[in-house]
Structure prediction request, 299 residues.
Amino acid sequence: MPSDRFSYSRLQLFDQCLAKYRFIYLDGRPAGGESIESYLGGRLHEALEWLYRERRTGRNILFDDLLNQYRSLWKEAWHGNIHIIRTGWQTDDYYQLGQRCLAGFYRRHAPFDEPVDGTERIISFTLDRDGLPGQGPPGQGLPGTPRGSGLPVAGTARVQGQDGCIMTAILDRLDQHGQGWWSIHDYKSGRKMLTPSQAEKDLQMKVYYLALVKTLENTERVDVVWHFLRHDREVVLEQVQWNPQRIVTMLEKRVEKIREREAQPRTLQPRESPLCNWCYYWDVCPAKAGQTRPARLAK
Prediction:
């Protein structure tokens, strides 16, 4: 039976490595470990989610408060299967990198009075043209999706028809500046930065944009903001003019391609790249089995 639930991360993994895609989404194999970069990114997201959640209660957040929360999150989530790949880097180097990321964000955005509508918002919607301009009212992509200014949460709705597909988007932060004016914020903790021209083509944000258009009645203006925490830089696209119909068409073609390959699992072979060093499936990978992965346990 073809897969019926997709996300940007799933689409991205299919492009990166077909074998890893099969191990995770078809075979259901657990990863068996976590990179220190992934661990750092998770704690930064949690710290910023905490910051805005506390700020919405009226609390004034000092930088020391944010650092203390980051420290607590780092210690509480630590486990014995975190690995370091980069030569010359130790656990404390990553921890301090996180502190610098938060320091830059704090300097740039304090006192955090942005009109935050929600953090870590999960939106699920059907990948079709319902709710798009000229295609009927929004908020009907999933049964039970609330209408109006409220956002839907991830649901357990059944796909209507064998060709149906549900997309899920997880927004780091969503701000509402006024009636019909929204801004989507995405936190990036990695080394890679996007230029404005690259950002204009970014599929992840287009999926998030489509989620809003599909589920809100008024999306007259949508801004998108990338926060590159490691670089203390931001890329902002104001009032994006993306075509929802084209985004749906593009996603439909990707899903169709994935389903075709899923029907032939033996064709889902490894695609070797530098990312292999961050992969936890060497023991079952035809390209890496028997080799030693260049990673060490973080302490």
About this structure: Confidence is low (pLDDT under 50) at residues 139-162. Residues 116-258 form one domain. Helices lie at 8-16, 18-26, 36-55, 63-77, 91-109, 196-200, 203-215, 244-262. Strands lie at 5-7, 34-35, 82-84, 116-126, 166-178, 181-188, 221-228, 233-237, 296-297.
